[in-house]
Design goal:
- There is one protein chain.
- This protein has a single domain, classed as 3-Layer(aba) Sandwich (Rossmann fold).
- The chain has six helices and eleven strands.
- Strands 1, 2, 3, 4, 5, 6, 7, 8, 9, 10 and 11 form an eleven-stranded mixed sheet that branches.
- Helix 1 packs parallel to helix 4 and helix 2 packs across helix 6.
- The longest helix is centred in the middle third of the chain and has 13 residues.
Length: 265
């Protein structure tokens, strides 16, 4: 089946979001990197054709350390996407970043282990720079959209990405807090970096669901149930932010993301 030029915008973590659209097309994509997390669900928001993929599978059966990030990202590129938005549930490492807030991250710290983190494994070797890992154009649009919708938005933030599926110990979390980092998550890397390696614009939207365990004495330890409760309570805000900003994404990119690497994969 011909899959090129099916979409211009990709969304990971899209489980459930495509249910708000009409005339959904579900397609499966074979990749050189193995199976994707799920099918891709194609729909339309404003003038844009959008591809949604639930990164953990539609039934949330893939743990974060086993997500096939390369296959997922390659599929978005094969569809024709030039921007990829990655909303995610995340924990807070700082008291001023509260559950229910949104953080539009501008930096990441990789604390994962054993993941496939690049498309360039030889013989053609490149070193695409991650110095500014997220698209400034998409970040500005997300920030302004969130403010206009009355969502509590943090305009910058560093997300430290741990391997999962376990949460941090109090000692680990306290260390991350002491570094001044704001957000902790299990999927933001290598997803965004792989997006950039394929010359697409990456955007992280972190929905804060809990305080991480290191804020000792002030908050209870994080639990999966507590995370999901806050996440589900804020789905309406996340949907409004995603759909409104996608409607307003300009057709042409005016950033340097599309020139990150020489494509030869």
């Amino acid at each position: 089946m011909e899959i090129q030029n099916k979409a211009t915008i990709g969304v990971f973590g899209g489980s459930g979001f495509y249910s708000f659209l009409e005339n959904i097309e579900e397609i499966k994509i074979d990749t050189p990197y193995g199976k994707t997390s799920d099918s891709v669900f194609l729909g339309k928001i404003g003038s844009h054709n959008v591809a949604f993929m639930p990164r953990h599978g539609r039934d949330h059966f893939i743990p974060p350390h086993l997500v096939n990030f390369r296959a997922n990202v390659w599929a978005m590129k094969a569809l024709g996407c030039n921007r990829v938005i990655s909303p995610c549930a995340a924990g807070s490492l700082q008291k001023e970043v509260k559950p229910g807030d949104f953080v539009i991250c501008d930096q990441f710290v990789d604390w994962t282990d054993g993941r496939k983190t690049t498309f360039y494994e030889g013989p053609h070797v490149q070193h695409p720079s991650p110095a500014d890992p997220y698209c400034p154009e998409l970040r500005e649009l997300a920030i302004n959209t969130g403010k206009n919708l009355g969502i509590n938005i943090h305009e910058t933030g560093t997300v430290v990405v741990i391997n999962g599926p376990r949460f941090s110990t109090k000692a680990e979390s306290a260390f991350f807090t002491s570094q001044g980092w704001q957000v902790i998550n299990m999927t933001a890397f290598p997803e965004a970096y792989l997006v950039k390696e394929l010359n697409m614009c990456p955007l992280n939207i972190s929905l804060i669901t809990d305080y991480d365990a290191g804020l000792v004495g002030d908050v209870p330890p994080v639990s999966h149930d507590a995370v999901m409760e806050v996440f589900n309570n804020n789905l309406a805000n996340l949907k409004s932010l995603l759909f409104t900003m996608i409607e307003n994404i300009p057709e042409e990119c005016h950033c340097s993301c599309c020139n990150t690497a020489e494509l030869d994969i």
